[in-house]
Structures are given as C-alpha cells and as structure tokens.
Amino acid sequence: MNPDPPQEHRFEVRTTSDSHFAWLRTRMALERTLMAWVRTAVALIGFGFTIVQFFQRFHEMAGVAPPIRPQAPRYLGLALIGAGVMSLFISVWQYRAIVHYMWSEEFSVLAGVHRKMMRPVVSQTPLMTVTLAVMLIGLFAFGAVLFRMV
Questions:
Q1: d(CA 30, CA 24)
Q2: Distance between CA 24 and CA 6 in Å, rounded?
C-alpha cells in the first residue's frame, strides 16, 4: 500500500462569517483551556505549600508524637508544587504553538487581520500575564520549601 502523496493544504479555507466566528470561538476555547490549566496549577501549588506548612506547624506542637518519616510532607509538597509549575510550562508551550498556528498565513483571512498585523501578540494578553505571575509564585514557593526558607 502506498500512502497518498503529501498535500500542500489539508483543507480549504473559505471566507464566510460562520468560519470567522468559528475561528473566534476556537480562539476563546484556547483561552478557556489555558485558564483551566492555570486554575489547576494554582490548586497544586497552593496545596503543596499548605501541606508543608501544616505538617511543619503540626510537628512543632506540644504533645505530638515524632513522625516516622519527617521529610515525607516536604517531599510531597515539593512534588505538588513542581507538578503545578511544570503543568504551567507545558500548557503555555501548547497554547503558544496553537496560537501561532491559528495566526498563520493560511488563516489570516478568517482572523480578519491584514498582513501587517499577522504577528500574534501572545505575551500581551492578560491571561499570559497572570500565567507568568503564577509561574513565578510557584517557582518562589518551590525554592522556599526546597531551601527551608519558610
């Protein structure tokens, strides 16, 4: 069996109002997906930091038996914080790749922009600012727990 020869374009882009609004809906779905990733990362980072703080304070209380594995909460907290930060890195990478694809020359007609405006300004969206801020907070929390600064 011979595979079909490679095609230059996978499909035909038609300039209609419904295809333009489909492009906009796809763009907004992409934003919602990144927001869901940010929400998940905030929960992971916050829960990881909370576990570390809770068990640190718990062990300092009078009358509490010493733990069998005293470093386990710290390692779990680091794992959760690291998972939150890594999920943000991966989601931003995926988001940027898809946005660049949607703003490619092939879809410029659907996006409703001129050739001069073709560059997507991904880093200037409010969502990217929030995402980067959460990444920095997560990295700070990871460092604080790792080096026992809290």
A1: 10
A2: 29
Phi, psi of 73 (to 5 degrees): -60, -35
pLDDT reported for residue 59:
77
- Apex 145 CA angle, 37 and 87, nearest 5: 15
What is the sign, positive or negative, of the torsion defined by CA atoms of 24, 26, 29, 35?
Answer: negative
pLDDT, tens digit (0-9, with 9 covering 90-100), for 73-109: 999 999 999 999 999 999 999 999 998 888 877 777 7
Q: For the segment 101-139, what is each residue's pLDDT rounded down to a tens digit? A: 888 777 777 777 655 555 555 557 889 999 999 999 999
Burial of 108 (0-12, 13-18, 19+ CB in 10 A): middle
Give the tokens for residue 39: 């929400």
Residue 45 carries which DSSP code?
Answer: H
| Confidence (pLDDT) at 86 | 98
Distance CA 119, CA 96 (A): 12
Q: How far apart are CA 117 and CA 123, in angstroms?
A: 15
